[in-house]
Write a structure and sequence with these properties.
4 copies of one chain form a homotetramer.
Chain A: E1 3-13, H1 15-18, H2 25-31, E2 44-48, E3 56-60, H3 68-76, E4 78-86, E5 102-104, E6 107-115, H4 122-127, H5 131-134, H6 142-152, H7 159-177, E7 183-190, E8 195-201, E9 210-214, E10 219-223, E11 235-236, E12 241-246, E13 249-254, H8 258-274
Antiparallel strand pairs in A: 1-4, 1-10, 2-3, 2-4, 5-6, 6-7, 7-8, 8-12, 9-10, 9-11, 12-13
Helix pairs in contact in A: 6-7, 7-8
Pfam families (chains A, B, C, D): GATase_4
Keywords (chains A, B, C, D): Glutamine amidotransferase
Protein name (chains A, B, C, D): Class II glutamine amidotransferase
């Protein structure tokens, strides 16, 4: 389990989300309260949008709390749209290429959760990434593979539907070759224009996810855990929904990859039979 | 607060102390129970004696639990005398040069604890290191400075007395310019022939320290926390004592730097007056 | 182009190959003379055999010349069989998982060279790695993929034939989707019992490779470049041959993957047609 | 010998100096032409001024050419005043704390050159740093010590005079305890308002230094080596001068620490006598 925080709104210093609040993302890196492990020290990353359509990306393998580069960067850089992540590895190596967020073109993506029995079908998951995107496969995580498959499924035209299809394909593999729970996730993604987030699980234990609009700041924070313990106004995002954030407004849609799984299962089964 | 473990006896794979036991040093790096912080993820190190009089040294800034090099090294290297350390920084940067153990010539040294108000007299502490040893000052920690001052005070001829004098000089500085508690420490040190350990505090809160002789293994383990929760035979080392380990035998001597502090205080005071 | 050195014989300190000689591997990391780039500073690694059937592995992303851990390790560890490598990236990220040698079970493998147009068929290359070995795919290099495919092709039973088949499959892909020159390589590999090396190219520009037996030392060195400029006794390994080193003896066999390529090309073509 | 580049003018992406030009700083990191070593791969750093009085700082120990974080940062961050540095160690460890630039409060500083026989008086140099600045002593380089001593000598009120006095004190130590050449340096420094640079040597071999005003860009570049081999308009800065850059104008003043050395030599001698 990892922890993450995203922001969209009037430009702020990154540190206002990442390190300043009482239960900031940095604080959650060694004292998370709403997940199994309180320690998220297997690397970190931040993707931010600035003067260019493509996001900046800074990732490293140190615990987030001890990196002076991160401290300096978040104190200097202002952005109106950014994603930040602290990682607790579920097995994959601690390496920059395995740290979130992942970026490709204008897109950024980060993930918290697990894909059941991923080690048993990692190769099949990689096979779902088309040649044109395979050069972007730098690490070995399920999260990066999910992102690239979602890109292939059409993030550009319909982010919700593309991520739903990609998730369904992973669930199909987990059912065929992996283990339950097949998928648990929260994820944030952006094309530099809008911020999207999803909360989902194939069982009833989706990871925690909250959002809060700040009038003072003129911005929306979307987070694994509320940034201030005592602060009101944090709304829990319902399981199995996909949120599109637009200023103070949130559009909530159903996110139901399970409905698509059967179709993928059949094609997976025929592929497996053909092997 | 950091955690450490040392071993002297028949050669064993380093992993038999560092990663294999149920409450191994690696386990303590994310689940320590006998100190304020359960997380010791600000770097690690191991110094081991082999075919040469000088020890080998491997240190890095990752959490110990996630470093494949450490895992491989401890699975391959056998040693009859080694020191291993996981670090929780008390403020100094996470950098290889600030990781324990420190080595110089045949000596190795590692430390857990604190020097009260060290930031206020760091320069004075450095000035106590003579020119001949100053080239060995690589980092910025109180621990490395204490080691180098102890070397200057004569570790080679009388380890206990040298470390006592060095500690007294640090306590004098902490009294004159720092803060209480002036010194709390456990430390292990070796010249490649013998293993020494000390437990001390200027107040009544010396960090925990234990040793245990294993007949099976033919070796002595000296540790911040017992390596197996359920295992008997762990002896707590008394506060304010210095131990010399020789096979299954332990020679325990008083360690009383406080008795020497007055003399150093006077010289410190006259130096400060002269500034 | 990278540089590497391997050793098999009476146990020696690793530094006797890696850092001590006048044109040691460390020296070649910033002053190589027999390849395009004199700088090999994109990470390094060493795999060595000791008391266990599996090799130890130490890899890091710093230039080899500046890593104190490497210096200490090579001064302490003695081994009768080891592989060491300094890397000049041909495009893939500088990451520990992309550093050579690669190890799996008792096997170790390192490589210097290039696979023509690899980026265009990286996914196809990954697909040649069977599920059972796919968990060992940690990085993104052509070299690691080649090693894993060679394992799948039967390194355990016939190293030469297995590496020949794996190479042929890569050449077939390079012909179908990549670019010329299709394959240039030198590689060293070992199962902990014997040291093997290969020199090969699909054109007439195979990278340099030498071996030299030392009576004094009782050992065989196999290297990209002679370790001493003035020293006699260095034998150039012929292109398109596979060497098995056994004490002072060298068994040289033809290495002709080109003869196998046609068969793989047909199957590759039919697979591509089926896509 | 290191290489560096600084910029003051209309805000530009950092990459326009650091990575884009044909002989950019990144290019100089592996192909410098005007210094002894063509390789500057022992770490890098960039300090930039943005929305805050204090500069941002990003430093790491990888070669500059292979760090994706640096590539992304320089592609995203715009600044009207920044300093960038690639390092070739003259002996001190490769560690983030030994990488340039160094920053303190609003000041940033970077250096190329050498202090003769520094190892023999490193402790004396540290002693010149007052207590109030000693907490900022993070590494072990001569450059950081020189910067902190210059701060103590009054960078805030008169940068040229302060750096001259600090340099004189180092030269005095090099004469008393070190070796010739006593000091060779180019340095750039800034308080976030103005950019300053110095070129100096106690012998006739000051490192190279150039500046060039770009009308197109509306900015001044100050560099170890011209950023484009074929480009005109690069002015060599004379030895033993201190430059203050103000828009397209350059104020050049004499920089003559040698005139002050005698006074410091006498006080150094009396201190040494008192030891």
């Amino acid at each position: 389990m990892c922890r993450w925080a995203a922001y969209a709104g009037a430009p702020i210093f990154l540190e206002e989300i990442i390190s300043r609040p009482g239960h900031s993302l940095i604080h959650q890196s060694h004292g998370a309260t709403q997940c199994h492990s309180s320690i998220n020290a297997d690397g970190f990353g931040v993707a931010w949008y600035g003067d260019r359509p493509e996001p900046g990306l800074y990732r490293d393998v140190l615990p987030a709390w001890s990196d002076p580069n991160l401290r300096s960067l978040t104190a200097q850089v202002k952005s109106g749209l950014f994603l930040a992540h602290v990682r607790a590895s579920t097995g994959t190596a601690t390496s920059r290429n395995n740290c979130h967020p992942f970026v490709h073109g204008v897109w950024s993506f980060m993930h918290n959760g697990q894909v059941g029995g991923y080690d048993h079908f990692r190769r099949d998951a990689d096979m779902m990434i088309p040649d044109t995107l395979y050069a972007a496969r730098k690490g070995a995580t399920d999260s990066e593979a999910l992102f690239l498959v979602a890109l292939a499924e059409g993030l550009d035209s319909d982010p919700r539907a593309a991520l739903e299809r990609a998730s369904a394909r992973f669930i199909a593999l987990a059912r065929a070759k992996g283990a339950a729970p097949h998928l648990r996730m929260t994820a944030a993604l952006s094309d530099g224009k809008r911020l999207y987030a999803v909360r989902y699980a194939t069982d009833d234990a989706a990871p925690s996810l909250y959002y809060r609009w700040s009038d003072t700041r003129g911005g929306m924070a979307v987070v694994s855990e509320p940034l201030e313990a005592e602060e009101g106004g944090w709304n829990q995002i319902a399981s199995n929904t996909f949120c599109t954030f637009d200023g103070a407004k949130v559009q909530v849609e159903a996110f139901m990859p399970c409905k698509l799984v059967e179709g993928y299962l059949q094609s997976t089964a025929s592929e497996l039979a053909a092997e």
